[in-house]
Amino acid sequence: MKKSFIFLISALFLVFLLGRISNNSPWPGDSASGSILFSSYSSPIKSLDAATSYYVHESAILDNIVEAPLDYDYFARPYRLVPRLLQILPEPQYYDSAGQLLGADPEPNAVARVEYLLKLRPGLRYQQHPCFAKDATGQPYYAEAQRMPKNVASLLDFPRQDSRELHAEDFRLALIRLCDPRLASPVYSNLSSFIAGMRECSAAMQQKLAENNEAMLDYRDLDFAGIEVLSQQEFKLCLSRKYPQALYWLAMHFFAPLPWEALQFYALPHVEKAGFSGQNWPVGTGPYKMSRMQPNLQVVLVRNENFNGGAIALPDEAESMIERIVFQYERESIPGWIKFNQGYYDHSGLPSDFLQTATDFSNSGELRLTKEMQDKGLSMHSSITPTIFYFGFNMLDETVGGLQESARLLRLAISIVLDYREFIDIFLNGQGQPAQCVIPPSISGSCRDNPFVSPWDEKSGASRRRSLAEAKELMRQAGYENGLDREGRVLKLYLDHANAGSSNFKAQFQWLKNKFASLGIQLEERPSDLNRWRDKLQTGNWQLIFNKGWLADYPDPENFLFLFYSKNGTVQSQGRGANYVNYASPEFDRLFEELECMVDSPERQRLIAEACLLLQKDAPCCWGFHPAKVLLTHGWLKNYQPHDMSYGTLRHLRLDSAERQKLQSRWNKPRLKPVYAAIMLIAALGVCIEAGRKFLQRTDAQTRLPG
SS3 of 199, please? Predict the structure, then answer.
């Protein structure tokens, strides 16, 4: 029976071992009990450089490492600016051409210069970083290649780290860097039309690069009138004309300070060779710093020990900031949603495929979580975002572009048949709102209807899209009756995109194709890779684009109307402007230039309405939709407040890790009973077989005849 006993003990040990090691958690060890926030992102990270980064998922990381001078009150709605790196909100001082101080709200034409005095809070320091390390002579320690540590995967692994105080000169350096034409900063076009000396600084850079082809410019030696440094703690932002919205700029990461030491460090050949760059390892004063950077796998932030965030108004001041933030790359939404339901992500969006299973409607028609989801302690946060996705016509194209009447009527006819209420219902599970013009509902100046495409119907109290017959009549007036030009040829149009291989896009393209076919237009696609598609946008070598988006940088209608200002034309500005459709209207420019310099008032709202009506008439876009955002959080994530203007909000969050660990264990109990039963059955069979074998051996020995 010795073998049977060993077999049984082995089976029992295997049962015990399975019970100990079975765990489906994607995180190592006892992560659930630690001060770690688990989040995810689904789009590739292109840049975490504050001068060029312009995507939401990148800002969700970057804006918690670097800080801008101002921020938004985390809890206040409507959104309200508050100081972050500054002591107080700066007030504009207006001067005329003779240098005389003007009143608080002078006429724009009287203003020749605007000054904002910015005073830094004391005690602000950068994170610990190897770029600040010095040798005995005061020179950068890692300038010598032999001091570079071998096989390091993180900047935290560098043995020499140091810090320094934040200086006013760091803001000047950051703003000058936006002028570098090699970076093609997406905000340069808009900023340079207001900030003094910005265009001159960019021209000087271009000249230097043409003469010397320098890989690294010393920005400190360039003349720049836009920032006047008064001391280490004070500086002035100087504008060439009146612009009340300038304060909103100061809450964007483009205005985050940049230490010269960081630029020097990342320019070192041996540092670059090791895979470190300012594009992936930003240096800042914010609450967190980079610990791990694998953009196609995982990004990890750890708490910045030098962070001086000032007073943070939270319900429970006794709890501390979260120590570590893990951003996991989830290419597909379904695996991320499953992990969230298991408790392995602390917050999540709600994929449209699961909307009907996770939500229902209250008696008043409001979207809410199902009882099952509520019983798990989940909270839902939903809103129409300050975002627009539009279908764009290239206004430089000879067929669909220009302001001539035939092209305008063609664009309006297409806009009528592209029924975005239907698109939202089919592809977004009803989560969104059709756009009537470019300004979202949460921003002042938004339109309730579009008289050329979907006029207001008093009887129903809603806008009503014009009929297919009306669209066909516009086609006839445009010279394309039944989709044929005057020579009897079928009108063929081309959609340029970078979505080849996407099953979701294939379905959407078929929807578009059917809509165009209803007018007799043949729609063809011209797919390309992402880099080629971006080149097409910058050079104007495209005809139609689909679902081009814009998310508000700040809560003002000017931030959407500037998308159609001619000087921001992407082609005209050599890729620096966000007027991707290259719309150019002298009348719109006149209205925009007048309203952009005004404080909010009834007169400004009148000009905004005129500008929107002109855009609706000229139809450089089919206005598309404003998406709804549905976010879910687990009960153990505290102080979560959705914010569409600020992304540096991780410092406000708190975790009840004990509650998370308890619920994770409850929701993910291993189902091992069938496994245990199978093992015990096999063990029992093994014992029986072994016993039977012994019995047969004894029986055989007893019945065998003596030899």
Answer: helix
